[in-house]
Amino acid sequence: MEKKVAIIYFSATGNTEAMAEAVAIGAKKAGGKVLLAPVADVDPNVIGKEYDYILLGCSAWGIEIIEEEQMRPFCEKLKPYLKGKIMGIFGSCGWSRGAWLNSWYNELHFAGALFPAPPVLAYGYPDEEGQINCENLGNMVVSAAISHE
Ligand SMILES: Cc1cc2nc3c(=O)[nH]c(=O)nc-3n(C[C@H](O)[C@H](O)[C@H](O)COP(=O)(O)O)c2cc1C
Q1: Is the pLDDT assigned to residue 111 strictly greater than 60?
Q2: Ligand 1 centre and the CA of 11: distance in Å?
Q3: CA of 142 to the centre of ligand 1 (A)
Q4: Is the dihedral of CA 118, 124, 127, 131 positive or negative?
Q5: Pick from 71, 140, 148, 84: which is nearest to 113 by CA?
Q6: Is 92 touching ligand 1 by the criterion CB < 6 Å?
Q7: How confident is the model at residue 11 (pLDDT cuts 50, 70, 90)?
Q8: From atom 31 of ligand 1, which residue's Cα is the shortest distance away?
Q9: What would the pLDDT profile of 123-141 be if each residue is shown by its tens digit?
Q10: Are strands 3-10 and 86-93 parallel, antiparallel or unpaired?
């Protein structure tokens, strides 16, 4: 069966966007049919209904939070669909140790999402190692089996 994968991101200056592109490479290598899009371009109801694999990227904002104008409302609308979804998250930051990704992870996990791999963080524009980490994230998430219990 075709694996439909949504890779949705918020990126102000292109850093998380570059991570999303690397995640997409890994997801495609694992056999995924990938939608790669900025969060402003997609409807959370469509993503929630039509995709079993959802990878979200967002840079660190405010004081260690996800971006609030676009990604926050998108996530709130997506949450009712998350039970049993296979997910991964990633994002770029300036100096954080990952607090915004950890709280985001907990929130999505609490909403019912399953995470085959931990969040992936990069500082600024992802270097070669950062891009490999993203590719591995895409690959691991899309390689995970869906449980239809
Ligand atoms: C308003 C604002 C708030 C930010 N807050 C944080 C923060 O809390 N922690 C952090 O590590 N970086 C923070 N940053 C830095 C960005 O996360 C960083 O520049 C990131 O690489 C931007 O990625 P993007 O181009 O994908 O949006 C902030 C930047 C701005 C402009």
Answers
A1: yes
A2: 9
A3: 28
A4: positive
A5: 84
A6: yes
A7: very high
A8: 61
A9: 999 999 999 999 999 999 9
A10: unpaired
Please tell me the distance between residue 94's alpha carbon and the centre of ligand 1 in angstroms.
5
Give the residue among 39, 10, 14, 6 at the shortest CA–CA distance from 126: 14
Tokens 């949450």, located at residue? 79
For the chain, the structural domain boundaries read: 3-148
Q: What single-letter amino acid sits at 61?
A: W
- For the Cβ of 93 lying below 6 angstroms from any atom of ligand 1, the answer is yes
Q: CATH for 3-148, among 3.40.640.10, 3.40.50.360, 3.40.50.150, 3.40.109.10?
A: 3.40.50.360
Q: Does pTM top 0.85 for this prediction?
A: yes
Q: State both tokens at 63.
A: 């004081």
What average pLDDT does the structure give for the chain?
96
The verdict on the CB of residue 70 being under 6 Å from ligand 1 is no
Residue 147, both tokens: 């449980």
